[in-house]
Amino acid sequence: MRNLAVNASNHEKTPEEYMLRLRKSIFQMSKPILVAFDFDHTIADQNTDIVVRDLLPREKITDDVTKLYRSDGWTAYMQKIFFLLHENGIKPETIEEAVKKIPVTAGVDKLLKFLHQTNNEVVIISDSNSVFIRKWLEATCLNYTVQKVFTNPAHYDDNGCLRIQMYHIQDWCELSTKNLCKGHILEEYLKEREKSGVKFHRVVYVGDGKNDLCPCLRLGHSDIAFPRCGYALAEVLCGGGQEINASVHTWKNGEEIMKHLSNYLNSDYSS
Questions:
Q1: What is the mean pLDDT of residues 135-147?
Q2: Which stretches within the chain are classed as H helix?
């Protein structure tokens, strides 16, 4: 406080100007917005699992493999795909290069950098896996913009085969797959941050698919849901059949989201 007062005497000509600067400084010591992102088709402009699956010849994905998705879920299906990739001599380096080549969704790199620069917090909640997301973020030099990633744990075993586990096994949410309830993860993270003394002015969720509906339904009246245009989440939230507390803004590129959030931040600073 003493330093602020000294600075005020040099730069602020009136008590009102000093108080405005003080409020801004206090605001910047908190986290104005938590932005939770999906990953596939949201930050990265393709689906990491599909890109890697397509490294296999189509004849290798038999009906028995496809049935795994219907019976045991996507995670079990992808584990079988990873086994097949290993059996067919497709090395980890080839898998990772395919993931790294996925382009960033237009403008989302600028959005992530903007959020970082303006003292907001970014998390990823994704049904991809930890290896794919980590390698992609490192390749695009965007890893520093993300506070935390919630996704299915993965690692290479001693033989170089990619192994994946479910993030958790849940039976409480009918909107979500059994291995990942994004709404539950978002709520638990907010509780964790509040215990650490961080409370956000508002929460934002950015996504594209039906599995992004659950976290959007848990948003409050001051929060924002950003469903991507042309994808399933936008159809659900903008079709009139689903009520949601948060305001809803569709988007085609990250700069549209950045413009919306910049307006919110400017409004908060000036209030």
A1: 98
A2: 2-11, 15-29, 48-53, 63-72, 74-87, 92-100, 108-117, 130-139, 182-195, 213-217, 232-238, 254-270
Burial of 93 (0-12, 13-18, 19+ CB in 10 A): exposed
209 vs 60: CA distance, rounded Å: 27
In angstroms, the Cα distances linking 49 to 43, 80, 223 are 14, 12, 30
Active centre residues (catalytic): 38, 40
Token pair 């039976």 is found at 171
Strand partners, 227: 207
**Cβ partners under 8 Å of residue 175, min gap 6:** 181, 183, 210, 211, 213, 214, 217
Average pLDDT of every residue of the chain:
89
pLDDT confidence tier of residue 31, bands split at 50, 70 and 90: confident
For residues 110 and 255, the answer to whether their CB atoms sit within 8 Å is yes
Do residues 212 and 205 make contact, with C-beta atoms less than 8 angstroms apart? Answer: yes
Element of type H or E holding 128: strand 121-129
pLDDT above 90: residue 85: yes
For residue 86, the Cα-to-chain-centroid distance in whole angstroms is 29
CATH number of the 32-44+104-152+167-270 domain: 3.40.50.1000
Residues 166, 153: Cα–Cα separation, whole Å: 7
What is the structure's pLDDT at 239? Answer: 85
